[in-house]
C-alpha cells in the first residue's frame, strides 16, 4: 500500500516495437511505390533517376500535381508583388533615373526640389501596381518559375535591375 508505483521498464529508444512486422520482401507493399503514384509523379520519379540533381533534392509528391496552381498567402502577398515591383521599376526606368539624378544633384533639398520627378515616378509605379492584367502577367511568370523549380529542384537566379547612372 505505501510503496510507490513504478512504470514498467521501457526498451531502448530505437528498438521500440509497434506490434506490426514489416511485410516480407516479396509482397507488393515492399515493391516500388511508382505504381500507386499519379502519372505525372511517376514521370518525375523516372526523370529523377536519369537527371543529375543536387544531393538530397527530391520532388515532393504533393507538388507533382500539375493542376496545383493554388497560391499560398506568401506567394500572393510577397512573392508576386516583388516580381511586380521589379518589373514596374524596369518599365518606369526613365522616371527612376530622372528621380535618382535629381536627388543626387540637390542633396538635402531633394524633398522640395524633386517633387515633380517623385510624383511622375509614383504615378508610373502605381499605374502598374493597380493594373489587374499586369498582376496576371506577373502571376503567370511566377507560376512558370515555380513549375520549373518543382520540376528541376534548381532555383533560377533573379536578375537585379541595375541603374545606368
Automatic annotation (TrEMBL):
Keyword Mitochondrion included in the entry's annotation: yes
Family, as annotated: Belongs to the CMC family.
Locations listed in the record: Mitochondrion
Xref: InterPro entries: Cyt_c_biogenesis_Cmc1-like (IPR013892)
Annotated keywords: Disulfide bond, Mitochondrion
UniProt-annotated stretches for the region Disordered: 1-39
A Pfam family that the UniProt record links to this protein: Cmc1
Protein name per Swiss-Prot or TrEMBL: COX assembly mitochondrial protein
Organism: Cyanistes caeruleus (Eurasian blue tit)
PANTHER family: COX ASSEMBLY MITOCHONDRIAL PROTEIN, COX ASSEMBLY MITOCHONDRIAL PROTEIN HOMOLOG
Domain of life the protein comes from: Eukaryota
Phylogenetic lineage: Eukaryota, Metazoa, Chordata, Craniata, Vertebrata
Gene Ontology CC entries for this record: mitochondrion
Amino acid at each position: 500500500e505505501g510503496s510507490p508505483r513504478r512504470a514498467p521498464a521501457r526498451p531502448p529508444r530505437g528498438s521500440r516495437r509497434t506490434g506490426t512486422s514489416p511485410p516480407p520482401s516479396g509482397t507488393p507493399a515492399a515493391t516500388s511505390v511508382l505504381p500507386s503514384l499519379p502519372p505525372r509523379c511517376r514521370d518525375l520519379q523516372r526523370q529523377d533517376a536519369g537527371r543529375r540533381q543536387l544531393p538530397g533534392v527530391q520532388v515532393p509528391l504533393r507538388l507533382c500535381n500539375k493542376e496545383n496552381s493554388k497560391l499560398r498567402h506568401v506567394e500572393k502577398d510577397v512573392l508576386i508583388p516583388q516580381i511586380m515591383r521589379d518589373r514596374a521599376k524596369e518599365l518606369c526606368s526613365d522616371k527612376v533615373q530622372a528621380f535618382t539624378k535629381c536627388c543626387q544633384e540637390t542633396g538635402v533639398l531633394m524633398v522640395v526640389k524633386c517633387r515633380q520627378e517623385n510624383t511622375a515616378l509614383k504615378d508610373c509605379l502605381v499605374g502598374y501596381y493597380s493594373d489587374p492584367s499586369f498582376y496576371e502577367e506577373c502571376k503567370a511568370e511566377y507560376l512558370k518559375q515555380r513549375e520549373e523549380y518543382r520540376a528541376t529542384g534548381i532555383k533560377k537566379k533573379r536578375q537585379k535591375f541595375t541603374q545606368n547612372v
